[in-house]
Design brief:
This protein has one domain. It has three helices and seven strands. Helices cover about 35% and strands about 25% of the residues. A hairpin with a 5-residue loop joins strand 1 and strand 2.
Length: about 200
Amino acid sequence: MRFSRSLFRTTARGKTYVSVRGSEGVALVEFAVTLPLLLVLVVGIFDFGGAFNIKQKLNAATREGARFGASSPTSDLTAATPLSVTAIRDLVDSNLQAAGINDCALGGASAASAGTLAWQYTASGGGCPGTLTLTIQRGQLAAATGTGVPGSLEIVCTQVSISYPYQWEFNRVIGLLVSGSAAHGPPLITTTAAVPNMD
């Protein structure tokens, strides 16, 4: 919008203000109303695109971890924290770092039992906005499917799951426009992959 000099007025106290009339005033009001909506739309597009990109990278990391775990021997699973489970964690961690995702210091996390043949790592270091959770199940049962396979047949799989805290920029923008409307804490992006064990 272009203002001519005639639109600027000076009061007796020396203050200058803009005098808008007619279509110029309507255009200014329209701009003031549409700017926040446009801002929300643009930030939303970038934010959801970023979340989708991270989801794809997490999918790749869990698939690689599940494939590696499925090909690893199960002879060490009686240990408190089996070496094969630690190796899966290390592989997932290196894939996250290679993809440019904050691993929340997953490499230094200790395993906790999450049930029979299941271990869980939680990490929240390295400037992470929340807590990353990696769950590795070496004895996950899954129903076998396919032509000629009985419906009651189950196979043993290695399942790798990640819950990743994602910091939405969208929440900050909504919080600026409508106070108190932003969600508290980062939401989690979760993904799971399972591959049948080789042995």
